[in-house]
Design goal:
2 domains; Glucose Oxidase, domain 1; alpha/beta; 19 strands; 7-stranded mixed β-barrel; EC 6.3.5.5; globular
């Protein structure tokens, strides 16, 4: 069945539809990972986005029960060069086409994904829609141009109620801005006693739980819109050790007086090199973000840069110079991607242990 992708600038790509026949508007972005499509499809940070995968063959190892990063995906569409209809892998349970049908996610295959990626790199993120062939293209373009960028994504993907993931180690409050399950997995692997709370939980409520540490998870959208999270961070900073990932990283920067801005086309993939400025070592990281902390806005704050992206020099990690708090823009839990930065979870455990003993950890270095 022929379907088409229509972009807000009037560009049309015609290909083969698969998955659901539903039509949704979304921000068209691209991911450069060779594998990990199941984790990408289920990552809440892709809420309301249509994702183009630059690797040409997708779905060859199928879908399995173990690699989901959320229970219900919130992605608005998937675009590939070719999808595999008959996967072959010992863990495969069903093909990607069936998964997209089950989850009501539209897909488009058979288009020039290289051309689409180059367009996004040149013009920036564009709004788009995967449509049937009988729509009026001019009407869809007009609709896309008038459509506002999606808002309230964090509210959509965050848990509505707090829930525990019990352990016998340090008590950690994990704030769910749209967290990947991989973050929770890494904490439970370290025997942490985790309480997952909604994005709008107040500082008073978190402190009343008497945690040893606070984890700020990833999530979608513009960090400046998450005013509840910014105010909460201001209320807990310096009182409890804190670790922020991706959106959590950006929220800490905003809470400390820095600024964020939208990237032209974002960082999305499992092969992004990041330099640890405290060790001079390079880590290959998994990333998924459309906003970044403005380097120049850090002047005059109590934050120091610990990591930078080698591709474009943007901020990839921060450390508070007075309080036990640190953040990274990328995903140390990977899923998908390399686990070069997995040591940061161990660093967080050490930070909680040291802070519990002496009350501060200002001089600790982010080392492997």
């Amino acid at each position: 069945m022929k379907r088409q992708l229509i972009l807000e600038d009037g560009t049309v790509f015609v290909g083969k539809g698969f998955g659901s026949e539903r039509e949704l508007i979304g921000e068209v972005v691209f991911n450069t990972g060779m594998t990990g499509y199941q984790e990408i499809l289920s990552d809440p940070s892709y809420c309301s986005q249509i994702v183009t995968l630059t690797y040409p063959l997708i779905g060859n190892y199928g879908i399995n029960r173990d690699d989901f990063e959320s229970i219900e995906p919130t992605i608005n569409g998937l675009i590939v060069k070719e999808f595999c209809e008959v996967p072959s892998n010992f863990r495969s349970q069903y093909p990607i086409d069936q998964f997209l049908k089950d989850k009501d996610i539209p897909g488009l295959a058979g288009i020039d994904t290289r051309k689409l990626t180059r367009k996004i790199r040149e013009h920036g993120i564009l709004k788009g829609r995967i449509c049937s062939m009988d729509v009026n293209v001019d009407e869809i373009v007009s609709e896309l141009q008038k459509a506002e960028w999606q808002r309230d994504q964090v509210k959509q993907v965050s848990t509505k109620r707090s829930y525990p993931s019990p352990g016998r180690g340090f008590k950690v409050v994990l704030v769910d801005f749209g967290m990947k399950h991989g973050i929770l997995r890494e904490l439970t692997l370290r025997n942490c006693d985790v309480i997952v709370v909604p994005y709008d939980t107040t500082a008073e409520k978190i402190l009343s739980l008497d945690p040893d540490g606070i984890m700020l998870g990833n999530g979608p959208g513009d960090p400046k819109e998450i005013t509840e999270g910014i105010e909460m961070i201001k209320g807990v900073l310096g009182k409890i050790p804190l670790f922020g990932i991706c959106l959590g990283h950006q929220l800490v920067a905003l809470a400390c007086g820095a600024d964020t801005e939208r990237l032209k086309f974002g960082h999305r993939g499992s092969n992004h090199p990041v330099k640890n400025l405290e060790t001079n070592r390079v880590e290959i990281t998994s990333q998924n973000h459309g906003y970044t902390v403005r380097m120049e806005s850090l002047a005059g704050t109590d934050l120091s840069v610990t990591h930078i992206a080698l591709n474009d020099g943007t901020v990839e990690g921060l450390k508070h110079i007075k309080y036990p708090a640190f953040t990274v823009q990328y995903h140390p839990e990977a899923s998908p991607g390399p686990e070069d930065a997995n040591y940061l979870f161990d660093y967080f455990i050490d930070l909680m242990e040291t802070s519990k003993k002496v009350g501060t950890n200002d001089d600790k270095t982010l080392r492997h």
